[in-house]
Amino acid sequence: MKTTAMIVAATVLCAGLLIGGGKKTTPVEAEAMVKKAVAFYKENGKEKAFAAFNDQNGKFTMGDLYIVVYDLTGKCVAHGANPKQIGKDVIGMKDPDGKAFVKECVEIAKTRGKGWQNYKWSNPSTGTIEPKTMYLESVDNLIFGASAYTK
Fold first, then answer.
1. How many domains does one find in the chain?
2. DSSP letter string over 131-145?
3. Does residue 104 belong to any structural domain of this protein?
4. Rounded to whole angstroms, how far apart are CA atoms 116 and 27?
5. Any idea what the CATH number is for the domain that residue 54 is in?
6. Is 22's pLDDT higher than 60?
7. Is 131 buried (19+), middle (13-18) or exposed (0-12) by CB count in 10 A?
8. Within a domain: residue 71?
9. In this structure, what is the dihedral angle of CA atoms 67, 112, 32, 42, given to the nearest 10 degrees?
10. How far apart are CA 25 and CA 147, in angstroms?
């Protein structure tokens, strides 16, 4: 009985790891995902790229890593984790500390073209507010971003 319980526990743990459960995204992975998304967009165009970015079971969504795309007014045009955000003006969205992180994202894109930003957000894996860092790049008046929890 004890051996059977251990085998079941090990199987559940391995299955969770295989589908991305328990794996925490790193900032390096977030940056690589953005570069992959930008290349895909340049090769395939906006329509095909946005469809791929919005596919929650696709190659641009892995565990807690996904692509988000804003235009330079702060409108969400693609979102790999929350399709309800697509089409919404989110320029005024704030983190729990009151930081207007989408506005900051737009400012970074307009002034530097790419870079990192830090903010806080609720981590669905832990249910707690945690620090996050987002890498972003601006291409064709669009902002491509991906982020990682840093706690």
1. 1
2. EEEEEEEEETTEEEE
3. yes
4. 9
5. 3.30.450.20
6. no
7. middle
8. yes
9. 70
10. 8
Q: Kindly indicate the confidence band of residue 63, based on its pLDDT and cuts at 50, 70 and 90.
A: confident
Domain boundaries, position 45? 25-149
For the entire predicted model, the pTM comes to: 0.84
Hey, what amino acid is at 41? Answer: Y
- Is residue 121 assigned to a domain? yes
Look up residue 55 and give its amino acid.
Answer: D
> How many whole angstroms separate alpha carbon 125 and alpha carbon 13?
15
The secondary structure of residue 80, as a DSSP letter, is: S
Q: Is residue 144 part of a domain?
A: yes
Token pair for 16: 């969770």
Q: What is the mean pLDDT of residues 86-94?
A: 97
Identify which of 144, 130, 147 has the alpha carbon closest to the alpha carbon of residue 64: 147
Q: What is the pLDDT of residue 123?
A: 85
